[in-house]
Amino acid sequence: MVVREANRIPQLDGIRGTAILLVLLWHYLAAPLLLSSSPVLRHLGTVGTQLWSGVDLFFVLSGFLIGGILIDAKESPNYFRTFYVRRGFRILPIYIVVCSAFPFWRWSCLHFAHVDAESMPWWVYATLTQNIWLRNHAWENVWFTHAWSLGVEEQFYLTLPALIWFAKRQHIWKIAVGGIAATLFFRSFVYLHYYPNWKSGAYTLLPCRADALMFGLLAAALVRNSFTRHWVENNQTLLGILAAATGLPVALLSIKGWGMMSTAISTLGYTLIAACYCCILLLAVLSDEGRVARVFRVRWLRWLGAVAYGLYLIHGHILLALFYLLRGRSLAIENWTDVAVIALALCVALFAAWLSWTFFEAPLVRLGRHVSYKPPDVPEQQTQLVASD
Length: 389
Fold this sequence. Notes:
By secondary structure, the chain is mainly alpha-helical. It has helices at about 10-35, 40-45, 55-70, 80-100, 100-110, 120-125, 130-135, 150-165, 170-195, 200-205, 205-225, 225-235, 235-250, 265-285, 290-295, 300-305, 310-325, 335-370. It is built from 18 helices and no strands. Helix 1 (about 10-35) runs parallel beside helix 17, helix 4 packs antiparallel against helix 18 and helix 9 (about 170-195) packs antiparallel against helix 11 (about 205-225). It starts with 9 loop residues before the first helix and ends in a 21-residue tail after the last helix.
C-alpha cells in the first residue's frame, strides 16, 4: 500500500477551534464566575460547568488525526522515525519556550497577588508527566497545571504507534472499542473503590482518559473502511440522535453544578462526552454540505484552530499574570472592571498565539515535514512527501 497525501479537511480546523474556544470560555468566564463572592454570579457560572470538556474534544480530535495518520502510514519503512520527528517539531519548541516563563509568572503572583506560586519538580516538566504528578498533589498556586492534558496526549503518542503497527488493519476498530470499554471499567472502579483519593487520578491519568482518544481512533478506522463509511454516511440522522443522547445528559448535570471530578462525570460521564464529540466529528467529516460541516468551516473558528496549540499553552499564564498585575488579587469576577481585565488578557493571548504560530510554530512544522513517510520498498532518494500531520 502506498501512503497517499491527505487532503486537508477544513472543518477539522474548525473542530480544533471549537475545542480551544470551550477551554477559553471555561478559564476566562465560567471559572472566574464560579470563584465570585456573589451568589448570583456563581449561579451564572454553573451554566458553563461542562465547558472544561473542550479538552475532551481535543482528545477525540487527536485520536482521529494521529490515529488516521498512523493507519495510513502503517506500511511505511520509516513509520516510527517520521512520526516522532514530526511530533517533536510540533510539540516541543513552543512547550520549552512556555516553560521558561515560570520566573516571570511567579514574580507576578508574589508581587501583585501576594501568592507564592510553586512549580512542579523540573523532571515533571522535562518528561511531560504533569498528569501523573498532579494525581497525588494539590493544584492550587501550582504553575502550568493545564499541561496535564499534554501529558496524556504525549503518553498516548508513546503507545499508539506500536499498537497500530503490530495490529492488523481490520482489527484496529476492535482495539478502539476494547480500549473504550477497558478505560470506562478501570476509571469507574478506581474512582468508586478509592474515592476520594482517586478524584484527580480519574481526571488526569491516561488509563482513565484513554476512552476519548480511542473514540477518535475508532472514527479514523470507520472512515477508512468502505463498508462502515458507507453505513455511517447513510445514517447521519441516527448519528445526530446519538450525539444528542450522549451529550444532553452531561449538559443537564450543570444544573446541579456537577463538574469534572464529580461522581457522575468521573464514571460514565467522560465516556458519554467522548461519544458525543465522536459523533459530531463524524458528522462534520462525512458530509461536506451538511449543517455541522458548514458550522465548523466558519473562518474565525478555523483561525482559532490554527493557533490553538500555542494558545492553549499560554492563555492561562497571560490571564493570571495580567489579572494579578492590574487587579492585585486572585482571579474572580466581582465587577465590570474584572471583566474588562479578562477581556484584555484574552486579546493579548490571541495576539501572542498568532505571533507564535506565524513566526515560530508554523516554520518549525514545515521543517518537520521535510521528514516524510516513505512508501514501502522505495529507495530514499525517490521518496516524496506523502503524508501530512
